[in-house]
Structure formats: C-alpha cells, structure tokens
Amino acid sequence: MINPDTAKVLSLKPVTLSECHDLYLKINTEFQTPDAVQESVSWWQDNPEKLNKLWWTLNYHSEQFDPERRIRALIERHLDGIAHRRKESSQA
C-alpha cells in the first residue's frame, strides 16, 4: 500500500478502475511480461502522478500483471523516495 504520509506529501489521490482503463490497455498490448511492466517504472521514476496511476492499475489487475506484488512494492519505494526528497528540500 502507498504510505499515507507519502500520498499526502505528493498529493496523490486514489485512482478509480475506469481512470486506469487506458493505461491498462497500453500495458496489456505493449508489455508482454511483468519484467517489461517493471521496466516502465524506470521511465516514470520521477513522476509521482504517473507512478501512482501505474500502481493503481497494477493493483486492480494484479492477477495478470503483478501477482507477487513485486512491481507495486518497487513503485512504493520510488514514491517514498520522491516524498522524502521533497520533504527535505522544503525544510532546507
């Protein structure tokens, strides 16, 4: 689960299943394996909004894309890191 403090710092909101539809279609057609989906995390690693949407999409479709919860855990770590850097920069 995305840390509530991280969600607050980054102003992340829950994303509905219908809002994830286009990203689901993209993932389903462009990425053939969970490893390919995981690679997309690196493309968006500094974009919390895209990572949040990817997390929710994977959450809704976990059986197909992330059954072992590896990718979602990776996204959570990226989001936590972004939130930590933002907190540090705002306190400096």
Radius of gyration: 13 Å
Q: Please indicate the percent range of residues in DSSP E strands (runs of 2 or more).
A: under 5%
Q: Mean pLDDT across all residues, rounded? A: 92
Distance between the termini: 29 Å
Oligomer: single chain
Ranges where pLDDT stays below 50 over 5 or more residues in a row are none
Strand segment tally: 0
The total count of helices amounts to 6
Molecular shape: elongated
Largest sheet: none
Q: Briefly note the structural class of the backbone.
A: mainly alpha
What does this structure look like?
The protein is mainly alpha-helical. Helices cover 71% and strands 0% of the residues. It has six helices and no strands. The chain has helices at residues 4-9, 21-30, 34-43, 48-60, 62-65, 70-91. Helix 4 (48-60) packs antiparallel against helix 6. The longest helix has 22 residues, at 70-91. The N and C termini lie far apart (29 Å).
Q: How would you describe this structure in keywords?
A:
92 residues, mainly alpha, 6 helices
